Amino acid sequence: MTYETVAHYAGSIATVVFGLFFIGVLIFVFRPGATRTYEELAKTPLDDDEIKD
Fold first, then answer.
1. Whole-prediction pTM value?
2. What Å distances lie between residue 1 and 6, 12, 44, 50, CA to CA?
């Protein structure tokens, strides 16, 4: 096996792995039931509660 062959396969495998990771993230973010969680997190900076030490 030459370096060029290994580099070609490594690039192809990395593309597939990162593509699957991206699809997994999209599924996680747009899963059913996640809307309520994201709405609550979006309102967090607007809470008027004081930070108590």
1. 0.64
2. 7, 16, 55, 63
